[in-house]
Amino acid sequence: MSQPLQALALTCSLFLLGCGDSGQDPSDGAVGVDGQVGQDAGVGIDAGDGEDAGQPPDGPHLGPCAILPADNFWNTDISDLPVHALSDAYISSIGANTGLHPDFGTEWNGAPNGIPYVLVPGDQALVPVSFYYPDESDPGPYPIPADAPIEGGPQGDGDRHILVVETGSCTLYEMYDAWPDGAGWAAGSGAVWHLNANEQRPDGWTSADAAGLPILPGLVRYDEAVEQGEIRHALRFTVSSAQSAYLYPATHSDGQGGSDPNNPPMGQRLRLQADFDLQSFSLPIQAILQAMKTYGLVVADTGSDWFISGAPDPRWDDDMLRELGDVVGSDFEAVDNGEAIHVY
């Protein structure tokens, strides 16, 4: 493990209690949610101006909130990390000839396509939440609006993630398999992340995602890729067979890939090779691919191979996003970002 990443892993706070092992981790369906476009969110619902949180610093942000510190795992440049000894095996496992798939866009099957989020003000009402894995979920109440966008839409049968950023304290609330329940919500699991801190969940504990990581920091967003023309963080993606192991700051694996060392562990980072030519791609796709070179991809969940996660937005050009399919697995390399912790 490189010294910066090792230091980060060792100093991450164990503040949160984690969230439940869902038994079935989020699926690969290319589905989105019901939401509206917010002024600074790029997608989702901007439910408040967030002026009480101050001005955003440099680096990834939403509205007034930085999306984690500059030295956070998600925001760390990995372009100089050495290639992993098992890089070829990992790439073969995920699919050397398989093209990238944008698991986000405008609409799919009648619902916004991707994982949505919503910004709410600091005085957003707190509501009760319950979990069917309460022992590993951060307890409520949560500031979840009654009309919060749900992955897959109100009647969706997929992962049904809800992501909420409370802009007064810049706190991220994430839930998996979330359903309205009386005056509040019922979900499989829930995790709370303070966006001004480097936090890590306890060993062996998941979050609203299979790897025990936050979801929002790894999404491709329209405001970054198109409006800003630059993405300054790693991107979340799925694989069909993740090893029963994880790399910090990931803390959990669903074990779909068993003990086979040729399958990547959760939290493994992959990097688009430095000599891959970006010039033939549309500018927003170049921004996405450059992020894959600089910050890489993170194995975060079980799903279809090479599915890249993003937030839905009606302004996406779905035909343009399909250019990502011209980039295949063999264009990547796995980097050495730590020693895997095995859970089998």
Secondary-structure map with pairings?
Blueprint: H1 3-11, E1 45-46, E2 61-62, E3 65-66, H2 87-94, E4 101-103, E5 107-108, E6 111-112, E7 118-120, E8 129-131, E9 162-166, E10 171-176, E11 179-181, E12 184-187, E13 189-194, H3 222-228, E14 235-239, E15 243-246, E16 265-266, E17 269-272, H4 283-294, E18 297-302, E19 307-309, H5 318-321, E20 332-334, E21 341-342
Parallel strand pairs: 1-7, 4-19, 7-9, 8-12, 14-18, 15-16
Antiparallel strand pairs: 2-3, 5-6, 9-10, 10-13, 11-12, 14-19, 15-21, 17-18, 17-20
What percentage of residues falls in helices of 4 or more residues? 10-25%
Q: How many H/I helices?
A: 5
- Beta-strand level of the residues, as a percent range? 15-25%
| Mean pLDDT across all amino acids | 86
Calculate Rg over CA atoms: 18 Å
Q: Please summarize the sheet with the most strands.
A: 6 strands, mixed
Protein model, in words:
The chain has 344 residues and is of the alpha/beta class. It has one domain (3-342). It is built from 5 helices and 21 strands. A hairpin with a 4-residue loop joins strand 9 (162-166) and strand 10 (171-176). The longest helix has 12 residues, at 283-294. The chain starts with a helix and ends with a strand. Residues 1-57 have low confidence and may be disordered.
Give a concise summary:
The protein has 344 residues and is of the alpha/beta class.
Notable characteristics:
single chain, alpha/beta, five-stranded mixed sheet, 12% helix, 21% strand
